[in-house]
Request: fold
Amino acid sequence: MRVEDEDGVRTITFDRPGMMNAMDIEVAEELADAVDETTVEEHDAVVITGDDPAFSAGGDIQAMKQREEGPHEAYERVAESFNRAAATIMQSPVPVVAKVNGDCVGAGLAIVAAADFAYTVPDATFSCAFIRIGLIPDTGATFTLPKLLGLRTAKRLTMTGEFFDGEEAERIDLVNEAVDPEDLDEAVDAICGKLGRRPTRTVGMTKQAIHENLDNDWRKALDYENHMQVQAYMMDEHEEGVDAFLEGRDPEWD
Reply:
């Protein structure tokens, strides 16, 4: 992975172009660490992308062939690498944007599903390809895909491993938008700019409340929402937002 910080945005790049940016254990751990180390004090957004020509071809199949481990070791390996990468993205108080510059398969697709925003090029190739090598989806995909796409679409993609392009990814809501390659950077910069003009701590709390309430019934959802809103009421960001509105100016968030 390559990690760069600039103007409040951390860009994390899959950097194994000779292997279509396939993810082995070390890459998944580096991704998790890079997201986990971001803070609302220093970052407005995280961008995950790939070195050309791919976003990520998913798990490193050559590495899979070489593994020799029992069930316990396999469980610990996945929990501390691929699943931890998904967890850090979903738990991060800093919003995460996937910039899909090329092919996005298996665990790569699962990373996109875990992100808060995603933009792609129309001719990128997507597949939830785990089934093609006799595996179920991991990296959080059995949780995120039904939530994002609906149950029938999630079952179709995960059980068939079919391929589809960026325009279809937009149609089924896997990504926010498919844009021409020359416009991809601009689209991602635009959403990062919007996020940078919002109070990052409150953005993170909004994400936390949405994720917490995904499986709550409406009574618990309202209670948790109220709990989080009370915290927001007490924060400097709320006071500054109210003052700025009443004074007819743009808020100045830290």
Summary: The mean pLDDT is 95.
